Amino acid sequence: MCVLADWDAVVKLTEGFNGADMRNVCTEAGMFAIRDDRDYVVEEDFTKAARKIAESKKLETKLEYTKV
Q: What is the mean pLDDT of each run of 10 residues along the chain (68 residues)?
């Protein structure tokens, strides 16, 4: 099955991502497809996955360390 997607939108959502982040987006998109009982991914899966990974990256940068 060939899926047409607006890759520009996905690229904008993943700006600043590294290779591991992109792998996580693809994996998460696949998980969204599996949860919907599909054996293929659609644009919405990638969009939701990119937003989910971006949100988790925001949390990563908010770690604050205090001097002991």
A: 71 91 95 95 93 86 71
